[in-house]
Structures are given as structure tokens and as C-alpha cells.
Amino acid sequence: MSTHALVSPVSVTDGAVTHDVDFIRPQLRSTGLRRIVLHAGVQINGAPHLGTNVMQTSAFLLAAAARDRFGVDVGLRFGALDNAPFETRASPRTGAVYQRSFHHALGATEVERLTRHFYGDLFETLSAVTGVPYEIETYTAQQAQRAFREEFLASLAKMDRLRWVLAPSHGNAPTSHPCPRCGWSEKSGDHTELLAADLHRASFSAVCVDHGRFEVDVTPESPAYIGLTTLHRNLVKERVAARDAAALPVIVKGADWATGCRLLDEAFMTWSGSVPPPRIFTPVVLSDSGAKLSKTLINAGTADLSAETEPWMLDATKWNGTVPRYAQTLVGLVSLMLSDPRHFERGYTTREVARLISRGDISTMTTASGGSRS
Ligand SMILES: [Zn+2]
């Protein structure tokens, strides 16, 4: 068995970046802000796999590193994607695909229980280990806020240009609106029509699979639910985060997001003088083929996994031990990745993760911020 320590090629930031948290520094200096809020995601449509937990652990450790290196106040905000589809069906008449989200199918109480089940103990442990406070907010709660709806309306006003940034191949960035009676909404939004829009109100017409045509009015105060494409949703969320005059927002995402974030950066430029928030991309966990671990591929049995892949790497609830021990393993692993940008700006196969853990030298590391915390 191979016993060599972690070996990574020189990263493109070599010589410019000595710790990946320094990606925050330019905007921290230019804004003069003394508080940073890191934003990361939480998926509730099934148990998290290792890649998801690596990204979230990175968020805690990056926040701790920012606090220790920059002397700023830090917070961590997780967005829980309760808008993910829970169930799907096709219209027998038109063939159009309809879906119902976790929020609409299960309700807020069950969504909260799922979030706690998948992340509660882990986040509590990571927060205790790093001293970084965190909060979790559902997409449903985010889109209900006045700021979100104002930014959504502002994006509609720029849609002539924005649509080609958010969907460069065809210029379609449809919205979807769940039927107010049953919560089902058309997946593609093909039959959703924007009737009228200004900065204060937008009216849509949509078709429910069971209840036919209905109209929705979106205003800063209206309760109408807003469903957006992935890039459009992230643009609006980041525009809302950037409104915080007291804190610099920092976006933490898996490295598979880099190409999409290129488009988000361009979307920000649609507003003159608007600066996209700093982004930090975290290492992706890969199957043997080099494809990112994906719930869909794992469930379909097409994920090309090596014999070294442990069941808990694909489903964190299968971890054979305590949650604090799991958190300690994650902290050790991500601290090793953060020890040099060349280790952080790359991906890891499950085979390599298994090898690093079997070496036994990662569990002794406790923080990623250079040991300045006791
Ligand atoms: Zn309906």
C-alpha cells in the first residue's frame, strides 16, 4: 500500500496565495468591513455524501481562518434547499413534467426535522470545534423576504440582457410558480407567462396539472412563491447578501460550481458598478472515473466507485461511530487540504480520501488556521 504523504501539483495561484482564505482579503480591504458572513448550501433531498460535508466543513474552517488571520467577526449562513423536487409527475394531457418541492409536499416542520437529522449534530460539533456561529435558513424563508422579492423584480427589469447570461445557449430563464391550491408547479416553466412587470410588481400566468390556469402577483409583500432556475436563484440570493452594509458576504461552493459562478459574475456586471462577492471553491470528492460524487449516480449504481469507497462516504448517516468522531475526521481531512493552496485547489477520489484517513495522521489535526487557537 502506498504510504506517501499528500502530493499535489503546483496550483495556478502559487506564489500569490498562501492560504485560500486570502481570496477574501481584496474586498475586505477595499470595503473596510470588520465582519464577514460566509454563505454555503445544505441539501435536504437525501443524506449528504462526503463531498457535501467537505464543502460545509471547509466553510467552518475558512470562517475560523478568516477570524484568526484578519481579526474580523465571522458568521456562517447555510441555505437549505427545500425547493428541491420531492415528487415528479407528467401531465396526462400535455406531457409537461410537474414537480412538488420538499416544502410544498412535506411542510416546514418536516423540512426542519430533515435538516436537523442530516446536519444538526454535525454542525453543532463543527461550530463548537471552530467557535464559528452558524444559522440555517430555508429557501422558502429566503424567497419570502422583501429584499429577495425586490432583487427578483430588479432582475426581471434587466431580463433582456440577463437572460443570455443566465442561459447562454437559448436565453430562457423561466420562473415557476406553484399552484396556490396544491403546490405542484411545472418544471420547465414553458407554460408560465410573464404578463406584466415593473420594479414593484410582476404578474404571471401559469398552468397547474390539476387545476388549470392561474395567475400570480409578485410584489415585495405578496406571499406568492418564487421558483427560479439554479443560476437565477443564486444571483438573486447573492444580490440580497450583498445588500448587508455591515458584513462582507463570501460565497463558499464546491469547485464544480466554478463554471456557473463565471456566469454569476457576469450577471452582476449587468448592474453598473456592482461587484460580485468573493468566492471560495472547495475540493470536490470524485469517483474513480473523475466524476464528482453525485446522489443521482450513486442511486443509479453508475458512480464507478473503487473498493476503498466506504459506505459512509456516499451516505454520511452510515458513519460507523459517533458524530463528534465523524466531525473530527472531516476537520482533520479538510485541515490537511487547507494546509496549502495546492492541496485545496484540486479534487480527491474516494480512494485517495480512504488512503489519507488510513495513514492515521489527519485525526490529530484540529484546526485549519495554523494552530493559533488553543
Ligand atoms: Zn393545483
Task: Give a brief outline of the structure.
The protein has 374 residues and is an alpha/beta fold. It is 38% helix and 18% strand.
Could you explain how this protein is built, in words?
A five-stranded parallel beta sheet has the order 5-2-1-10-11. Strands 3-4-6 form a three-stranded antiparallel beta sheet. A three-stranded antiparallel beta sheet has the order 7-8-9, covered by helices on one side. It contains 14 helices and 13 strands. Helix 2 (about 50-70) links the parallel strand 1 (about 35-40) and strand 2. The model is unreliable at about 365-374 (pLDDT under 50). About 40% of the residues lie in helices and about 20% in strands. With about 375 residues, the chain is an alpha/beta fold. The radius of gyration is 21 Å and the shape is globular. It has a domain at about 20-85 and about 105-150 and about 230-360: Rossmann fold (3-Layer(aba) Sandwich), CATH 3.40.50.620. The site of zinc ion has 7 residues, from loops.
The percentage helix is 25-40%
N-end to C-end Cα span: 35 Å
Strand order of the largest sheet: 5-2-1-10-11
Instruction: Evaluate the radius of gyration.
Output: 21 Å
Please report the total strand number as a whole number: 13
The helix/strand order is HEHEEEHHEHHHEEEEHEHEEHHHHEH
Give the helix tally: 14
Q: Briefly note the CATH topology name of the domain at 20-84 and 106-151 and 230-358.
A: Rossmann fold
CATH superfamily of the domain at 20-84 and 106-151 and 230-358: HUPs
**SS strand fraction:** 15-25%
What structural class do helix, strand and pairing data support?
Answer: alpha/beta
Which molecules are bound in this entry?
zinc ion
- The overall average pLDDT, rounded, is 93
CATH class of the domain at 20-84 and 106-151 and 230-358: Alpha Beta
Which residues sit in consecutive blocks of at least 5 with pLDDT less than 50?
A: 364-374
Q: What is the level-2 CATH architecture name of the domain at 20-84 and 106-151 and 230-358?
A: 3-Layer(aba) Sandwich
Largest sheet: 5 strands, parallel
Shape: globular
